[in-house]
Specification:
This protein has 15 helices and 16 strands. Helix 5 packs across helix 12 and helix 11 packs antiparallel against helix 13. About 35% of the residues are buried. Pfam families: PBD, Pkinase.
Amino acid sequence: MSQSISTPKKLVRGVHLHYNEEKGEYHGVPKAWLKLGIIPGAKEADYGSIPPSLIPKEVQPDFAKKLLKSTPGISSRPKNIRHKVHVDFHSDTGFVGLPPELEAAMKHNGITKEEVMKQPDVVLDVLTTYVDTEGFSKQIKTLPREMTIPASLVPPGLPSKAEFKRQIAQVTSTFAEIRSVEEIWTGLEPVGHGAAGVVYRGKRKADGEIIAIKSVKLGGETPFDALVQEITLQQACKHENIVKIYQSYFEQRGRSQRLHIEMELMPKGSIYSFLTKYGTPGFTDEAVIAGILKSVLKALIYLHSLHRVHRDVKSDNVLVGTDGTCKLADFGFCAQLLREESARQSVLGTPSWMAPELIRGVRYDHKVDVWSTGILALELADGEPPYLSLPPLRAVYLIVTGPTPKLKESAKWSKEFKDFLKLCFQKDPAKRPEALDLLRHPFIMKAKSTTCLKEFK
């Protein structure tokens, strides 16, 4: 007896959100969501055939304020490009379904159809990173994919989210309120500027110690939660090769709020400043290079033992003290690995120093810092990281697909140095050594004390 499939019954239409690419509008947006004001070009949904139980309820004002405060906004173009992009040899780029601006970016950055056909998934990973960081103009990105990590793969000793929240609460409880910076410091003079704020040199009134103060305007580019996490992760570090944070202060002036972070002053500046002032183009003495890298590796060994990933190891973030001591600084991109999140997928860092797995948005851990240490080593020798002169999309594509980075003038450097770099640049993170292994490498064993850096004026 033949059987036939019956037609569907009891169909229920729900809310369906549709994006019109030509007009840059979202259609079918529930009225309750429109009131939040965070969806550009939104067109209200037609509730005519939607059961009342499926219509989103009005959002409470307090919740809306909280959401608006914590949400940076929704871009007018979709972020996930994968679901509608396909490989097609007959197209100009090797893909069909790419937004026009991405097709233009591929052509401008020299990514050819032939390269797409060889490794389409890799190119899509790089393009996704390019979109999510708005052409690498933004260095911070939220977690792009859900992760479920088997309990058997979670390293022992990781703190839980609840434990890390308690650490943050403990640090923020020490923040003091002041009416004016003149209460605490005197002789303030700016010594550096950045996207997050201004760094001053000053004298602490209580004991006369010369210190650095990083002053950040709240409500600016750096979210307060991210700023507090940065302070927590750096202030909790007690190591000779990590810049100390002493105390943080809130200042309220009218409607303006600032957070002042008092930290250890490193008068000689960054290693980058050494390269630009004294490099020819980089350091010529391998023992000096090894000495700087030894300091960085010691800091990373300590950080990694606490299950933390720095994610921004580069010459700008290695500072030099009066006595030549080198210390790792700037924990703005640092992450605490947790039991619930023992690996990361967020694309975050500075493109030229990023490890391949970080660029692709796949699971990664502290081994990304080892790759960045290798790029730092190239900086110290060559004066700059590889691919710096290339367009950014082309550069990160080559980091993922190209040969491992090499010294510009390989013949003038020792085989120990080249072997050290080879280990740092293992593209498979499982084969990349730990920072502790590299500290024992023959190249690092020839390190000269960084006290020699105090001779530079």
